[in-house]
Amino acid sequence: MGDGRGPKLALLELTGAERDALEALTRRRSTAQALAMRARIILACGRGLSNSEVSRLLGVSLPTVGTWRSRFVVHRVDGLYDEPRPGRPRRVGDAEVERVIVETLESMPRNATHWSSRSMAAATGLSQSTVSRIWRTFGLQPWRAESFKLSTDPLFVDKVRDVVGLYLDPPERALVLCVDEKSQIQALDRSQPVLPMQPGVPERRSHDYLRAGVTSLFAALDVVSGTVIGSVHRRHRQQEFLRFLRKIDASVPADLDVHLVLDNYATHKTPAVKRWLLRNPRFHLHFTPTSASWLNLVERFFAEITNKLIRRGVHRSVVALEKDIRAWLTVWNEQPRPYVWTKTADEILTSLATYCKRIKDSGH
User: What is the DSSP string of 26-43?
Assistant: First the structure.
């Protein structure tokens, strides 16, 4: 079958044993991602797809597809493994490399939560530098860990479709605002003066600090324009949230509906808030799923103000901190930058489903 460029390609036929071997490479936890992708390329070619179709399907370049197709035709499954490089012969065989990878991915040392290059070297009889090279080659970093939490909201799918639909296709004659509160922002003063940056020397500050109190930032991000309606309050109760709703109401033209994307915090659902919403029917609330704050675009704005003002700021009082937050909001709104949501609900749900299949006991 041809790919629209160059001569017609011969149909790539796979034996049952070859297909089983390739599928095993795509599933096995110890397989390097590069090798797994090569196996997916050959499986796709074996279904009769052209090089260009495989390229689009798997998101790899056309030359990459052509290279591994050609290698497979000549050497079959063995051709998917990296060829020996120039230089002295390898002293560590494939079996030893595989053992390091399998041990890293599928076991733990007796006296630690993860492997170090030193402990893996002791367990396998290889040198520490050899273990480190194998890990670098296959992108393994046992010392790193990231946190995650899967939402167990029974209405997860419906809420994702609702919120993402607002982002990708905002309703006419309406404003979509992402709302949340960044609570417990501390006014911190360093115990000693900050030493300014100099050529070759970064800014330096004492590791300890003096606490001067806390405040909360209430923010509503317009998903289209990027402007932010903000308020700072010392407390974080329904009273403050109602005051913020009234500020939003006064800030948005009366002829527009207001769609608020917000989380499931109890303050957002009190009887007083519900009564206010009944008296203001142009307000429509859209709740994100529980444990899914990443779906609220205002969290990206909070990261912005944290990185550029709060984290390295020095404030001797809450009043000074609140003054700086208000000034920062003013400057932001002079040249707002909207955050563009690109993933569809189907893409998000498919990605999460794929991830759940890769982890044990996800319950999904």
Answer: HH-TTS-HHHHHHHHHHH
Low-confidence ranges of the chain (pLDDT < 70): 1-11, 28-32, 82-90, 358-364
CB of 318 within 8 A of CB of 212? Answer: yes
Tokens of 113: 């939560």
Q: Point out which residues pair with 185 in neighbouring strands.
A: 215
Collect all residues with Cβ–Cβ distance below 8 Å to 345 and sequence separation of at least 6.
Answer: 160, 161, 164, 165
CA 193 to chain centre: 36
What's the pLDDT at 231?
92
CATH topology of domain 160-347: Nucleotidyltransferase; domain 5 (3.30.420)
Count of alpha carbons within 13 Å of 293, Cβ hemisphere only? Answer: 13
Q: Cα(111)–Cα(258) distance, rounded to whole angstroms?
A: 56
3-state secondary structure of 122: helix
Q: Of the candidates 219, 221, 213, 222, which has an alpha carbon nearest to the alpha carbon of residue 231?
A: 219
Q: What share of the chain has pLDDT > 70, as a percent?
A: 91
Collapsing DSSP states into helix, strand and coil, what is residue 113? coil
Q: What are the strands of the beta sheet with 257-262, ordered from one edge?
A: 228-233, 209-222, 174-190, 257-262, 283-287
Query: What's the predicted TM-score (pTM) here?
Result: 0.66
**259 contacts 177 by C-beta, under 8 angstroms:** yes
**β-bridge pairing 283-287 and 257-262:** parallel
Question: What span, in angstroms and rounded, lies between the C-alpha atoms of 203 and 278?
Answer: 52
Q: CB-based burial of residue 257 (10 Å sphere; 0-12 exposed, 13-18 middle, 19+ buried)? A: middle
What is the pLDDT at residue 9?
66
Alpha helix locations (H) across the chain?
16-27, 33-46, 51-58, 62-75, 94-106, 117-124, 128-137, 156-168, 238-251, 271-279, 298-305, 318-334, 345-358
**What pLDDT shows up at residue 96?**
86
Taking each helix axis from N to C end, the angle separating 33-46 and 62-75, rounded to the nearest 10 degrees, works out to 80
Query: What string of DSSP letters covers 263-290?
Result: ---GGGG-HHHHHHHHH-TTEEEEEPPT
What pLDDT sits at residue 361?
Answer: 52
Query: What is residue 331's predicted lDDT score, i.e. its pLDDT?
Result: 94
